[in-house]
Amino acid sequence: MRFFYSLITLLLLLLMALFTSCEKDATEEEFYNVAVPVVKPIEEFRAMVKISEPRAISEAGKIYSYGDYVFINDDNKGIHIIDNSDHRNPVKIKFLEIPQNTDIAVKDDMLFANSAMDLVVFDISNMNNIKEGERMKNVFPNHNSRIPANASFVDSDNFNAETEVVIGYVMETRKIEMANDTQWLTNDGASFSESGNSSGGSGTGGSLARFNIHQDFLYVVDQNQLSVFNIAGLRNPELIKTEWVGRDIETIFHKENHLYLGSSTGMYIYSVEDPAAPQFKSMFSHILGCDPVVVQGDIAYVTIRGGNACGQDWSQLDVIDVADKSNPQLLQSYDMENPYGLGVKDDWLFVCDGTAGLKIYDTKNTPNLELIDHFQEINTYDVIPLEDVLLMVGDNTLFQYTYKGNEINLLSTFSLN
Length: 417
Prior knowledge:
This protein is mainly beta. The chain has helices at 2-28, 42-46; strands at residues 31-41, 50-52, 60-66, 69-74, 78-83, 91-97, 104-107, 110-115, 118-123, 131-136, 153-154, 164-175, 183-184, 204-205, 211-214, 217-221, 225-230, 238-244, 249-255, 258-263, 266-271, 279-285, 293-296, 299-304, 315-321, 329-336, 342-345, 348-352, 358-362, 370-375, 382-385, 389-394, 397-404, 407-415.
């Protein structure tokens, strides 16, 4: 009997050790990456705007063209201005320090830029004497500094949105109990983080743009809203309308009195026959993924990038019939590696397929696209097909290509570092 009790005691001790080990493992699994906001007082933040001399770029973002100038966003830091009058020898001339900036648009020598929650206007009529003008405060309430991709939680307990601006994050490793009162990270945290055609003295943006000018109106999208500004006065823009559009809106493109909004779940079409009051026409749903769109004639081309926070693991290019704006129809899909921006000119479609390079398709037999050229071994981000040259940015480099007959040839490369 004593042996029996000893055996029972031994088994109980083994079970206790096992459960203790499991509890220890569970405790170890409760450590998570927590993003803690780095903040600045609002007035100090607004005083950070400066017109500076050229500098090396940190992270090339979106691209914009106006006249002889190319503007390249340095992600969340400001805008590099490049004199591109000689396509073979571009020259940096100025850097606009604009904290938390991702997008710009230009009309009649007035440059409009976001700076977190504000819209800032610059007079660039004299590039040697750029002047900061009007600042429209708090017109972008959904602004947000990009949350680190490896963050599981955001600790905003000590952040006061009334008096402070988030300018970045520091990462900390904490037990889950220490983060119980924090916000769970969702895709809604991205706002101005990630094209258009020229109209009435305005410039041309890439397909990843969130700003677009049509006539006397500036259209701006954040992750779920479309804002309309009357910029007829140029120096004194007026916010006339902000409306809910949908979730995860990423890009905006204008073509023939219609706005095409790219989102992670589909493409929205709005009529701007009345430019002051965009009217919803339809929404075309596609697989989950990051999504810029360009349009030529009755055809829309949409790249859908999967992976990370964008959606499923695969990526593709969709060709969509938009002849009936109320009922767009998918015509064909093509597999892609890692697509970002795209552009269309005449019978050419240019696709920035990320690390897979620049792909050029013949569109004459759309929806049957023919790959006619492929510039590999470059990491591509976005393109703007201008009349004489193709501008492309990637790997902190500005690439320029010429159109000669049926050929696309590299004209110059310009390091932004």
